[in-house]
Amino acid sequence: MNFTLHIWRQQNATDKGRFETYKVSDISPDCSFLEMLDILNESLINDNIAHPVCFDNDCREGICGMCGLYINGRPHGNDDGVTTCQLHMRKFDDGDEIWIEPWRAKAFPVIRDLVVDRSAFDKIIQAGGYISVTTGGVPDANAIPVPKRFSDMAMDAAECIGCGACVAACKNASAMLFVGAKVAHLAMLPQGQVEAHERVKKMVCRMDELGFGSCTNTFACEAECPKQIKRQNIARLNREWIKQLFAGNHKPSSHLSNH
Amino acid sequence: MNNKLIKLSSITKKLLVALFGTFLLVFLLFHMCANLFILADDGGDAYSSFCHFMGTNALVKVAEVVLLGTFLLHICLSVILWCQNRGNRPVRYQRPSRTKTAKGSKLAIITGSLLLVCLLFHFYDFYFVKLNVVKGGNYMVKTEDFVISDPSQEVSEEAQIIVMQAIQDQKISKDGRWLRQLSHADKEVLQECFPDAAFEPDFYNTAREKFSVWHIVLCYLVFFFVVGLHIRHGFESAFQSFGLNHYKYSRLIEVLGIVYTWVVCLGFAMVPLCVFFFK
Ligand code: HEM
Ligand code: SF4
Ligand code: FES
């Protein structure tokens, strides 16, 4: 298969950037999108045409969340429920023009070409996406009973790989699907419930500070999430937020705490 | 606009938009039901006594202020959110988005703003008349206010003619309690002779007058269409914002939203249409 690629090239964070056009030919339909870019980069290096195109990737099996590209107007390209590394060239027609852009969001600045800085997500996790217990020996699986339905729902939410496609797709660059998945996944398990109020408060405040938008219930995130995280997780986030607003409804006795 | 409003967390703001929006949804249903009284075949008696109640009851006055505040807060908060959201993608994508999404949400700010424009015109027609800001429409007054207790009281010839004419044109309500369908000019003349008479806007006849003109009817139909677009999205969206989304009930909520939207919009649309064609 042959393709014409229009790729966003940008030297560094301050460079203005522009599209460059490249042609690739003889691409196998079974080639993944990233392998196709590898072939392009090889030819760029071998023929000494240009600096290879920078893009993020790691596992190449759809589980690490590094490889987000905005392809022809859709995060992770024209397929549902896959990451860019799992997108195959057979999803395109021979001779297609393909436009490749980096994620665009204030909170995800471009580092170079198609690589963006997604550490804002890490900062949200650092704000509360954990449970504060020292790890010890592995507890028995039946030590803390969890209803099957809840463990399933928690597992579905925990599938989020932090790729940022939800932010990239959202017209408000909102991270509500990501934060919703993280908050929901811990809120549904006994271990997570101890810090549930504090967690949602800290994570949402951090999300706001970092320049992510608010949710307008457009659900572009849900449509583009490679792990098909559901909008119900955003509803749960809203619910957890409301609970947090009304939690701690009386002052603790003052003789023990000095607050 | 107060700083505290801007500083609220994004979710709290959205919650408040939904809370005030839901209040507006309830109000809209109430308003629509009240309007249907206009269609009653009683020469406007039922609707007029309803308007009299709404115009004079103290609790209603309080509710009116609350409603106005609700509108303002709904608009302020949603506009704040919209402004804040716009800044979150300083460099835009060069290619148009091909993600499949709910259109109503993207259009909410536009349908909302159009709604506001339509609303101001609607206020011009009715509410501002009540506030005596706009001098137009029709007025009504209790007939008992015309009893002349003091024989020395002067009643100008002009006023007498207006009253005589009104009786001749059967502008007295069936139960004889109201003199209605007075123009603003007539009202001014009568008010001079009977300073104690309590004149009220006669919305029944104002509506009949307005809705006898085809382009006003058309404008109102457009207005209701815009309202429909906004609440078709808003109804479902509010549930999600309250955190009420469950895979079992989401379809039910969607259907309820569609039913609500059609009932409200058709209910509203019935009045200008029926008045235009049948009254
Ligand atoms: C009778 C009048 C109105 C009703 C019944 C109404 C109702 C609603 C409801 C129920 C929502 C959903 C809230 C949510 O998803 O959290 C909403 C959202 C919204 N409304 Fe209104 N509204 C009205 C008037 C207006 C006006 C005059 C504006 C003017 C700008 C406006 C702008 C918006 C915006 C921008 C949203 C946010 C949509 C979103 O982000 O999903 N609304 N409205
Ligand atoms: S919610 Fe989905 S789209 Fe968003 S970061 Fe997680 S996996 Fe990616
Ligand atoms: S490279 Fe790991 S998900 Fe694509």
What does this protein structure show overall?
- The complex is a heterodimer of chains A (259) and B (279).
- With 259 residues, chain A is of the alpha+beta class.
- Chain A has nine helices and seven strands, in the order ββαβββββαααααααα.
- In chain A, strands 2-1-5-3-4 form a five-stranded mixed beta sheet. Chain A has a two-stranded antiparallel sheet with strand order 6-7.
- In chain A, a hairpin with a 2-residue loop joins strand 3 and strand 4.
- The longest helix of chain A is centred in the last third of the chain and has 15 residues, at 232-246.
- Chain B has ten helices and three strands.
- A three-stranded antiparallel beta sheet of chain B has the order 2-1-3.
- In chain B, helix 2 crosses helix 4.
- Chain B starts with a helix and ends with a helix.
- At the A-B interface, strand 4, helix 7, helix 8 and helix 9 of A face helix 2, helix 4, helix 5 and helix 9 of B.
- Protoporphyrin IX containing FE is lined by residues 14, 17-18, 21-22, 24-25, 28, 74-75, 78-79, 82, 105, 108-109, 112-113, 115-116, 230-231, 234-235, 237-238, 241 of chain B.
List keywords for this structure.
heterodimer, A: about 260 residues, alpha+beta, Ubiquitin-like (UB roll), Fumarate Reductase Iron-sulfur Protein, Chain B, domain 2, 5-stranded mixed sheet, 9 helices, 7 strands, elongated, B: about 280 residues, mainly alpha, 3 helical TM bundles of succinate and fumarate reductases, 3-stranded antiparallel sheet, 10 helices, 3 strands, about 65% helix, binds protoporphyrin IX containing FE, binds iron/sulfur cluster, binds FE2/S2 (inorganic) cluster
